[in-house]
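Notebook entry, structure prediction.
Reason for the run: the old model in the group folder had no record of what sequence produced it. Starting over properly, with the input documented here first.
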Amino acid sequence: MSKKVTYAGEGSTSFQTKVLVKSTLIYIALILLTLICLVPIWILIVNSTRQHNDIISGVSLIPGTNFFQNLNTLKTNSLYNTFYHPLVGMRNSLIIAGSCCALTVFFSGLTAYGLVVYDFKAKGPMFTFILAVMMVPSQVTAVGFMKMLVSLGLLDNYIPLIVPSIAAPAIVFFMRQYMLSSFPLDIIEAARIDGSSEFRTFLTISIPMMKPAFAVQAIFAFIGKWNDYYNQSLVLVSTKPNQITMPMMVQKVLSIDRNADYGANYTAITLSIIPVVVIYVVLSKFIIGGVAAGGVKE
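New structure, fully documented this time:
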């Protein structure tokens, strides 16, 4: 019996059509997801440049010319200027978020390094315990946390907001998975043979190799602590104007329901996200590199 011979290129037109249709659908879905993410942010920025009456009249995608007038309202209106001082709020939030970010990323990377590089009997149970801690909401421990702060006299202090960030189970989990997938242990053995101490090996070899993972988690840690209104409002109970953070100031602005100025409200929100955007832009180039490196097994 004769067999039908299929030559290369036969049916290539239908194959190219399927690829083109599939690619078009993927791009359309990605464009829609991008618009869903960016349009609300754009509307926020646009509303910060519009007057109160214009915002009430409807949504607009065209920026206005009243940004500095709205900023002046925040500075001069007695409803806002008693507590809203954006430079002070940004300074306080940067102290907390920056310190937490550094401690979280460093100690989480150190913990993950120990779980991956060293082989000991308690390694499995310790990692299971870390996963279990991830499932406990912070609200569950809030009462005990407040009692401890009262007994230690640490209310209205930044220490309880910064020091606990050393323990970050979710970031430890990510760092461990990253190291398991893309961290060559042979380099650690070579460093030990050359006489390098364990801690020096972590600082000079492991951290540079884990730079993408550190950068990605630094973004998440910074954003999480910057927006952490819940814990900040629990600890900073006296709400002193020179001590409160940017999220607390914005919440006070939004809580004003008597003669509220929506233009001023949107301006306050816009100012509060500027540091987050700057940090993301600076470190975002590492996200794709981190995801790609973490997804490839050597």
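Summary: Residues 293-298 have pLDDT under 50 and may be disordered.
The old model has been moved to the deprecated folder.
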